[in-house]
Amino acid sequence: MTVKSELETIDAPAEPSATLEAEAPEESPFVTLPLLPRWDTVVFPNMVGQIVIRNERSQRALEHAANTDSHILVVARRNPPPQEISLENLYEVGTEAAVGRIIRLPDGLMNVWVQGIRRIKLQEILSHDGGFSQARGRVLEERLARVTAKTEVRMRAMLNLFEKYVRLSDKVPEEAYVIAMNAKEPGPFTDIIAGALTVDLPQQQELLEMLDQRRRLTVTGQMLAQELDVLELQQRIRSEVQDGIDKSQKEFYIREQMRVLQKELGQMDPIQREAEEFREKLDQSGMPEVVQKRVEQELDRLAAMPSAHPEVTMVRNYLDWMVHLPWKVDQEVEVDIREAQRVLDLNHYGLPKVKERIIEYIAVRKLAQDRLRSPILCFVGPPGVGKTSLGMSIAQALGRKFVRVSLGGIRDEAEVRGHRRTYVGALPGRIIQTIRTAGTINPVFMLDELDKVGTDFRGDPSSALLEVLDPEQNHTFSDHYLEVPYDLSKVFFIATANLLEPIIPALRDRLEIIELSGYTEREKIGIARQFLVAKQLRENGLADRQVKFSTGALRAVVEHYTREAGVRNLEREIGNICRKIARTVAEGDRAPDSVSAQSVGKYLGPQQYFFGAAELEDQIGVATGVAKTEQGGDVLPIEVTLLEGKGVLILTGQLGEVMRESAQAAVSYARSRSSVLGYDAGLFEKTDIHIHVPAGGVPKDGPSAGITLATALISALTQRPVSRDVAMTGEITLRGRVLPIGGLKDKVLAAHRAGIRTFVAPDRNRKDLEDLPADVRREVRFVWAQQMDEVLSVALTPSIPALVSVG
Length: 807
Ligand code: ADP
Fold this sequence. Notes:
The structure is a single chain. The protein has 807 residues and is of the alpha/beta class. It is 44% helix and 18% strand. It is built from 30 helices and 26 strands. Strands 19-20-18-17-22-25-26 form a seven-stranded mixed sheet. A five-stranded mixed β-barrel has the order 1-3-4-5-6. Strands 8-9-12-7-13 form a five-stranded parallel sheet, sandwiched between helices. The longest helix is centred in the N-terminal third of the chain and has 32 residues, at 213-244. Residues 348-351, 383-389, 527, 531, 566-568, 571 line the site of adenosine-5'-diphosphate.
């Protein structure tokens, strides 16, 4: 049964005789009140409600009423604004109302409580000099309805409907029902209900003008029933739509409700509570859909497990990893190339070429965005030359986090890619672990010691690294532990290595190599003065500029307390001095405000290194070579001793295959030149030749010691000392030709560092000279040799001028 028919059975159809004419009897009193025209609602007598007023004239009218404690006349407009306020544009019947609290709202609006009192027939509009309109009208008398049993039944039925109406409508406050319930007379009762109906304005006005209460009761009842029908229909549609929402969402709601209920009841068992906590984090993690599905499966498994289940820990750890890994980009920072340049310059002394290449690389990456897969940056150079700090500066310039992981000594693929979960104590690999520490999906990620990655039977970590570093593949990096792909494509990888050669070619192909060589003494002093001193003062709690290091002091530290390509030990020694001064300060003694060359020894103890030639005097059978090492470069003395014997060649000092062959070539060369160089070729049958390269613990290899080996040997054979101020490098052929070698820059820097001022190198390496800093080029005398004879004429003392002409 519909609402309407329910009402019709209660009462007879409404009587058509009731008049709609709102006539005020002659004798009824006049009122003159401030006028409040409305175009959206009708205010009914007995109704209490709020209205919002924008119009300034109306606001003044209300204020006047409030100030003078008078009522107002609310009249609905036939025609909405901008029609002017006139008798023709207003309805004839309005409502006298009391004014309650007025609240001024921020944007010029006014909120006011009004209570309808009685119906007024509008007769005249007057202007008040307070800047608002007034209206004169007559009070209307209603035709009262007697309260019979029939009207009572009718009212009760209507109240019933009204209750449902209030419940379903989100516009009518609950109090309206209570007020209606307390209204015993049909007149006020209908007015209250009429005021709550959301029918349109003309219909509302019709009810206002209806002075016959009995008729009004009937018509209001009909309108109420209609409105309720509409509301119920809406409600049904809404619930049908909700039924239509997909299953997963429904499950979500049910789960949510269950969660709330269980929480309320304090019933959740710890595992379930944990699962719920994971679920909450999962929702915030922003992980891709595939991953989320996988994690949800595990969550459901966890939630279904009894807490003593052996796999609980495993699943829990897995979930912990998944929800704590970063999955989305928090914020993309616009790359500002000029800012990047500024940051690099701010943090690093010199290195103009390196900085330029870094900036170019960043610029290309910025331009290409995702379209071009750029190679991975790789800094190659000895320790302490600023590889790490350049990486940090790049991160700073790009506004990204910085993380690093060392690959040194990794042999097992699982260290890169993780272990499968079934493995006891399994964890993700180092890449994913480090990403988690970073907490963002797009950090600057430094892979240190790429040249120290090894291989063994447990798989090749380089192949996993290939995947990490390959822009074509790394958006779906697979870690055995995670089981789902992880996107590494937003990561800014930078690899570092001390040497280029040990990096496998496949990896090398993916790298944009930037080489950093060691610093010269001058550069080191510059770095110390501009950066390291201030940094160490700060780290040791001393004020900026509290202690001044003289240039002499810095030079003393560089020359006598460090021997390195980079500035790591230099920084440490400066730190030592600062710490000792800080201690003096802490003990309350007068602390020095400067460090001079003389006082360095006081802080650092006896000199560790003696600057100057590698050997103290010219020696027979000892020549100075140079080698490129992980530390940059190093001078490498080579010793030869001739012993009575049977022509055996003894090689010691952990020499590699290539170096051994070099030694043999040197011997053969020396043998073939015996007549020219003036020793007996027969010597080789009765003599054992022992060649030793000290620093025996370190394996050495490569062809570039060839000319040094030959020089030491010939020195021993001719009994001529080798000049201690000469260092040399170059491969030797059996015919005594000098072939080019690699790493000249590092080798020269090493020799220069060791105080050597004459450097013999293959003629074909002449082109590398331009890479060297100007001060080194100035201070070192270069001898570019094509033939071994040229080497000997420089290295052996006294020199053998006769040899120069020998081709
Ligand atoms: P690497 O990573 O190459 O071993 P680091 O980046 O750790 O070297 O550098 C060691 C220290 O030397 C750091 O404190 C670094 O800031 C500083 N350093 C190295 N090169 C420079 C430079 N060109 N200018 C300023 N400081 C430098």
